[in-house]
Amino acid sequence: MSELRWDPLKNNWTIMTKGRGRRPQDFLQKREQVKMAACPFCNGNETKTPPEIYAYRPDGSRANQPGWQVRVIPNKFPALGIEGELDNRAEGLYDRMNGIGAHEVIIEHPDHDKSMADLTTDELAEVLKAYRARMLDLHRDGRFRYIFVFKNFGIEAAANVPHSHSQLIAVPLVPPLIATELESCREHFARKERCLICDLIRQERETKTRVVRDDGNFISYAPYASKFPFELMIAPLQHSHDFTLCTDQQLLLLADTLGDSLRRLRSILRDPPYSFILHNAPPLHLRRGRPDYWGSLPVDYHWHIEIAPKLTNVAGFEWGSGFQMNPTPPEEAAEFLRQADPTVRYQD
Amino acid sequence: MSELRWDPLKNNWTIMTKGRGRRPQDFLQKREQVKMAACPFCNGNETKTPPEIYAYRPDGSRANQPGWQVRVIPNKFPALGIEGELDNRAEGLYDRMNGIGAHEVIIEHPDHDKSMADLTTDELAEVLKAYRARMLDLHRDGRFRYIFVFKNFGIEAAANVPHSHSQLIAVPLVPPLIATELESCREHFARKERCLICDLIRQERETKTRVVRDDGNFISYAPYASKFPFELMIAPLQHSHDFTLCTDQQLLLLADTLGDSLRRLRSILRDPPYSFILHNAPPLHLRRGRPDYWGSLPVDYHWHIEIAPKLTNVAGFEWGSGFQMNPTPPEEAAEFLRQADPTVRYQD
């Protein structure tokens, strides 16, 4: 029997379908290696990109020269533009806003052939520090309501530049799905004086069937109403609403869990295309005294990372209904991922 | 400058991106013809499918024999199962419901090589009559809250059987996106005593820039906050909440506009993959005296069809934020589609 599942955080239902391919081997895909003549993200090609905004240079080398380990640059083809003032107005029954924002690229490593799953925990922690640094900087710009950090791996849209990178987009309003999560958390707290995500984590630790890894600092689990096969959520066990408050030590611990999750997915799904997203609370100063504006009151939210392998095809039904169909129950996904050996590249 | 646009029906924002490919020729894709040894949907292969539920047989031929023009069968691999009683319960903080529903396939024409855009207006009207007949029948089953009719064309998920077909899924709750639209319409009416979609159509007819076709009965236009390039909305000009109330004559007029829209898309985008969805009000008897249950009060809704060509790739940002990025402003899409010649298969 298929099953519908409701997630109190997303406030949404997922249809867990029955009798269709659901195991890792049902999803194996061929990944094409895109070869580029001269990759602009490679060490030594710094002049082929816009000037860097941030870099981690352990050797103390100069900006826009080789020697960096992580490098952040503006996106050459930004979805939103950094120049101008916000212009927010009605157009009859509709509303429009001009597309003020920032769009940056975080180059995760100088080596063209290393994916995020190949990075050491120390190297991955430096990528997370770059996220933190750029978010803190952009939070000072009063035009932005939200800073969005995400990564596409092996997905057509991202394959233009195969060199491992993440992206950051600053947007002039809180994204709809984040707003829903903030609202769920806020309502739950108003009623129960407890954080919803803390409650979910507590239930997951008791149930255990959906937990992939729990090292006492971070938990990685397959969400109850997962929209996608082998979807994962990574969250700190200790309540925190804002990723940018993480210490270096916490980022190192996060890098450990994140790297482990990516390697487990790679091991059983053979380098699956995936997206991951950092879900964070908007900064407090954006509340600006307006009760309807989300700001980072510590009780409002619990930051986390969501990883979604792209194994199924979203077509008419999902697009038009808002229901997602998922053939792999999260309990099965978690079992496969627990048994995966993260040290083996492709498991049989 | 990019632009953010808000749609009062979807209650959602779309980012209209600038400086990226946006014209029809930027989206042309290679479509692979899938050849099948023996297509179960073809005339003469009726025994290869489950027994038919409905058929239009102009020659009066017997069920499950050749001679049909439209044929409806149960999906062999249903996403939801027809047997059993609803079981709706909590699981700690979560909720689950067993997957009771129906999943049917509407075979639109006996000829394997005809796509929906190839059908005559009369033939297409018979497909719409099959939708209506199946919806009316399933509305009598008290376990279902909503009947969802959609079509995937040229999309991986649907390409298992290339023979032209639509699908119908009955679900035990109102799909999230439909619920949002119903809520938008209901709130608008409560405040203004007018149908929101009637208001939107009135504004579109005045603005004109987004209208593709308006024959006095049905309007086809590119929505203001289109999530996808060349997205189209088709709606009756005269207010009606429920598609199943359409007369044969109205379905003939709808077939005329729907066929025209599909042929215009084909002409300039060369058989693009697309999905279309029928958005309808849930039937009145499902309200069951509960004020929080959507039922088809005539003021609550205005049925319509949404067509979304699948030209862009939904990746991390869209999936994780709920923002869609669309490079083609609907005013430009409508201009291309107005100029398209629907009688020419592939326009240059």
From TrEMBL, chains A, B:
This is UDPglucose--hexose-1-phosphate uridylyltransferase. Zn(2+) binds at residues 39, 42, 112, 163. One of its GO terms (molecular function) is zinc ion binding. It comes from the Bacteria. InterPro entries: ADP-glucose_phosphorylase, GalP_UDPtransf1, GalP_Utransf_N, HIT-like_sf. GO terms for biological process: galactose metabolic process. The lineage of its organism: Bacteria, Pseudomonadati, Thermodesulfobacteriota, Desulfuromonadia, Desulfuromonadales. It comes from Malonomonas rubra DSM 5091. Gene3D superfamilies: HIT-like.
